[in-house]
Amino acid sequence: MSQYYFPIVFIVLLEILRLAQSHPFLFNSGNHRPQVEWKTPEDNWTAEAAPRSIYPLLQNQNNKHQLPPRYAVIESDEDEQLLRRAHEAKENATARTLFYSPKEESHLPPLLTKTIKYFNLQQVAFELETSVMSQVSCTACKAGAGLLQHYIRTGKSKEEIIKMIYQYCVQLKIQSARVCEGVSQLFGVEVIYVLKRITIGPDEICSFIIGDACGDIYNPYHEWEVEFPPVPKPDPRELGLPKEAAPVFKVLHLSDTHFDPYYAEGSNADCNEPLCCRLTNGRPTTPNGAAGKWGDYRKCDTPKRTVDHMLNHIADTHSDIDFIIWTGDLPPHDVWNQTKEENLKVLKETVTQMTEKFPGIPIFPALGNHESAPVNSFPPPYVQQVDSSIAWLYDELDVQWRRWLPASVSHTVRRGAFYSVLVRPGYRIISLNMNYCNNKNWWLLLNSTDPATELQWFIYELQSAEFAGEKVHVIGHIPPGHSDCLKVWSRNYYKIVSRFESTITAQFFGHTHFDEFEVFYDPHDLSRATSIAYIGPSVTPYNDLNPGYRIYYIDGDHDETTRLVVDHESWIMNLKEANLYDYPIWYKLYSTRAAYGMKGLRPADWDQLINNMTDSKELFDLYYKHYWKASPVKPECDYECRKRILCDAKSGRSHDRKYFCEEVEAKIDESNKGWKDWLFSSISSSSSSSGSNLTVPTSRDWWEKAAFYQIYPRSFMDSDGDGVGDLNGIASKLPYLKSIGVKAFWMSPIYKSPMVDFGYDISDFRDIHEEFGTMADFERLVEQAHELGLKVIMDFVPNHSSNLHEWFVKSEERQPGYEDYYVWHDGKVNPAGGRNLPPNNWIQAFRGSAWQWSDQRQQYYLHQFTVEQPDLNYRNPTVVQEMKDVLLFWLGKGVDGFRIDAVPTLYEDTQLRDEPVSGLTDDPEDTNYLRHIYTQDLPETVEMVYEWRELIDAFQAEHGGETRVIMTEAYSTLDVIKTYYASSTGRLGSHMPFNFRLITEVDKQSTAADYVKVVKDWMSILPAGQVPNWVMGNHDRPRVATRLGEERIDALNMVLLSLSGASVTYQGEEIGMTDVYISWEDTVDPAACNAGKDLYAEKSRDPCRTPFQWDDTAMAGFTTGSKTWLPVGERYREVNVQAQLAAEKSHLKVYQSMMELRKTKTYQLGTVKAVALGDSVLAVVRELTNFGTYITLANFGSQIEVISGITLADALPGKLYFEVVSVNSHNIRGGSMATKDIVLLPNEAFVLKAQIGPVERVYSSICDSWLQ
After folding, report:
1. Where is the Saposin B-type domain (predicted)?
2. How much of the chain exceeds pLDDT 90, in percent?
3. Which residues lie below 8 Å from residue 1120, measured CB to CB, with a gap of 6+?
């Protein structure tokens, strides 16, 4: 599928149009050349003359194939489990620009700039590339075709036109010079040749090429119908389900390999050409721009190693396949650079490879649109000039395909690359050359009437099959319902399928690269499905996809065979994981009957699936996941996207969507009506019934819209001069928290502790550590916080205790009842004698073995953190109850919830199996050396979270008051995090599974699209009824300003606080504090100390834990003492609260202004949308009907950016007003800016508001009163 030369030609011709308007004398030559008179040469070939395959090609293998389970949960397959475990290592997201939007070029002439804006050529390029056309493409097409015809009529030579196309392509920087040269040379000759010989105009040409998006214009030269023999159609019979346990054929379907022999690992994957990941694309310009080893989600084709690995996997995993369907597109997407010789080489090498990998297995190929050079160029047989004839390809296809096919196919393969083969008695495969329906095949403009007489031959074959009682499977490349298929050809094909619905039992195509299907219907009764076309997934990841293939199980040889597909499986390779771990894993993504709950795979069953997906978004979302082959970079699918995809599935006939899709689209439109429609209908319907009870949007619970603030107690405020922060210090600063808009604060541990890990090693879960104060201090803090309307959240540390806790002391002494409070083990026998060895290879978080020998107990105990932090045994019910009692104790003290620490490590593998090496580091002492598949994210862990939630909710029910919340810490994969919210059976879990992706997935080099991906990824896993949360910093990671850039601190805080749901700010981020240098001598963090002097700086968390900077006095106002537990930052005199409160503009004031915005209805109840505007500008759009729209814009780049905001929200006015502006902004609050020309300085950010007009204010006040 390649249309990349189309946008180039059209954009060039628009510049020519500008010249025609400004310099008409250039085009008024009187030397007009006459149009070449051209007539279609006679072709006396007849279908009856072609020999037929009458001997079965496939011998009965008597294979006993096992069908996929009908009701199995595919996600539990071993391969899927292995992938899920692979996710548990620290993710290294493959760089992707999801929403690329090139910057406007300022080097163009003003008139051309306006012209390009008018035609929206970026949209044209996208539509032509993806074959999703609109009026934009139609307008550009007509302009281009008209100007080319004008040039031809005015006598310009072929060479002049080609040179002009090349020059403008280069000057306009539409593509690189080599792409411009290749496109103009390869395609220019063919296009000019055809346009010289046709008499139709731009309207007819573009209706022909683009289809229904350009009108169904009558074109007498391209209206034709096939002829059917005078044989009555057999009465359709209702298809029964295939017989259970009957023999089946197992069939492999490969499509769109697009093998790239020049793929180069590490080359530039973000190039500006149609195909990247080659040495000729140069070195990557960014760290994330390098091509992956096994392929890339960007515009890159399939490396040889990936093809080899896939074929080896198939040969091993599916050694029992009976035959293979191979539906074309072998060469790569370098369409500007291809030669006949190069494409033939790819063909020969690939055929040889398939023959060697699958010896003795019949392969049934079909021709793709990429096999020709130039791409899409398939002249009919009557074009016999040496330089234009397609015989060079068809003759070689016959030679190569004859390795698997009988001699009888040569006649039709050499004529038109189509054939018919009897596979088994009563079962035939017909392979069609779908390039004769390809509307990008310019040769068809000469005469599209059944090129090569293929469809007439097809009818003859089907009629013969009907007479012989044979069932037929049709294979091809371009699906007949796809927009790339010529509408007149598709209409005729549809008639043929309808006529022979009893004979054709399945169709198989490729081309789209997606995993999908098309249903065919009775043209006279659209409620009756008659046939099904299976569209197989591509091997190539081009683009945004995982590589994939299909396995079909086809009703086999038995007396009642239907030759229907009984079931099919789609298999994929997770490309991201393959590149990350350098080990591709091919696994079954789904099997159809089980995934969709289908009785069978008859046409009626597929039609029912479409209806079910129309009614159920959940089912559609599952299909959408499979459609994209579980790609981690798939875009979101809104209701327009949903309509398009379901309409595609209903449209076996191209360019006729209105006929097939009206009902589906109407149902989706109806289900998507928002409360705005309800509001206006309610207002009108209640005019005669003012006392009606109206259902209105409800307010959020306190935590769902709250700004949370993390306090690290040792560093927040010291009240007694000892250099360590304490509870009374926190209490003294509660008014500050209130003033900046905080609703709740959570404190890192304040329990009694030896302070080996600064409070996370707890010796008494029910007491306060003396450095922080007393229980009375704590109770007073809670009381004062509640008086100010602040919520208090405790840090609950359930995984381990201190080794000085009485439980551990008693357990080590084996006191009755405490023997199994911790995880003890004898260890493994030491073959050298002496003390036993540790039970396994597990590594703790702070380097070294996770097992420590106890001389007293003569056993090892598990500690996933420091030696002084032994893991509690959650397989002991007594321990579980002990920790529940701890929660109840603090709830009784008035706390409003818990932040639960290190949740993934609660449970360990009972067999204590060794963990596999991750490949992330060569240091065997480092925790990242292993993949923690036996010590993290075990299924029991989330069940424990559900139990804690039930405990919290029960306390709530008994004692009343506002919601108590659970917030969980887990750096797990999204599929695991999703389960923390709730179980599949409805058990509730964490209110807020912390969303750390703004910490783990972005860095200083991240683009706006990377931030968009973070938002979309989290929203995609959010269960219905739940709200998102966003965490940008904490006490374990470098500070935001250090990690992402000091100059961006306002932009980052504005983005954080603009997103919907709850936000979490780590102390000091609101004033832009940075990490502080800590020498080895001053280092106290156990993670750093255990790493040693050479590695400490890499592991240390001390730099982000330094004392809070309150003012410019000694010790930054943190303490009255002369020494602090960690050094105060050197820049505290400039970066402190007092200075920023006094300044006219400051980070703190920006933060406070954003907090005020979060109190508005739009921010609390409105929708959220994140959009990348080019590489640098991120937009966060908040909308709520009748309450105004807010747009946060942040420029993360080093250049001035000019963007248009018109498309960011519905019905935006021409002017937007500044609500909040960053410190470095030249704008002022209350000022305005034109919506269509918004200028952002480097690292500037601001929030714009669309003012509400007088009429909307009336509705706003009405709604406001309802919502109060």
Report:
1. 134-218
2. 68
3. 718, 721
Any residues with CB less than 8 A from the CB of 1066 and at least 6 apart, and which? Answer: 710, 712, 1032, 1033, 1034, 1035, 1039, 1040, 1104
Confidence of residue 726 (pLDDT cuts 50, 70, 90): very high
In single-letter form, the type of residue at position 1242 comes to P
Rg (CA), the chain: 34
CATH class of 1160-1258: mainly beta
The three state secondary structure string of 604-632 is HHHHHHHHHHHHCHHHHHHHHHHHCCCCC
Q: Tell the CATH superfamily of the 707-798+877-909+920-1142 domain.
A: Glycosidases (3.20.20.80)
* The two structure tokens encoding residue 889: 């104790």
pLDDT (tens digit, 9 = 90+) per residue, 677-688?
A: 444 334 333 333
CA dihedral sign of residues 570, 575, 581, 584: positive
Which sequence positions are flagged as catalytic? 901, 969
Burial of 224 (0-12, 13-18, 19+ CB in 10 A): middle
Token pair 């620009």 in the structure block, residue: 97
Instruction: Single out the residue of 169, 173, 197 nearest to residue 185, CA to CA.
Output: 169
- Residues 846-870 pLDDT 10s: 999 999 999 999 999 999 999 999 9
Q: Locate the domains of the chain by residue range.
A: 121-214, 248-263+301-555+565-590+608-665, 707-798+877-909+920-1142, 799-871+910-919, 1160-1258
Angle 266-271-274 from CA coordinates, rounded to 5°: 115
Mean pLDDT for the stretch of residues 550-576:
95
Q: Please say whether the beta carbons of 684 and 697 come within 8 A.
A: no
Judged on CB neighbours under 10 Å (0-12, 13-18, 19+), 28 is exposed
Closest CA to 1162 of 1191, 1196, 1139: 1191
CATH class of the domain at 121-214: mainly alpha
In this chain, the answer to whether the domains covering 707-798+877-909+920-1142 and 799-871+910-919 adopt an identical fold is no
The DSSP letter of residue 710 is: E
CATH T-level topology, domain 799-871+910-919: Oligo-1,6-glucosidase; domain 2 (3.90.400)
Residue 1108 φ/ψ, nearest 5 degrees = -65, 145
Please tell me the CATH code under which domain 248-263+301-555+565-590+608-665 is placed: 3.60.21.10
Residue 700: count other Cβ atoms within 10 Å of its Cβ: 15
Average pLDDT of span 1162-1168: 92
Token pair for 213: 């998006």
* Whether residue 374 has a cis bond before it, omega within 30° of 0: yes
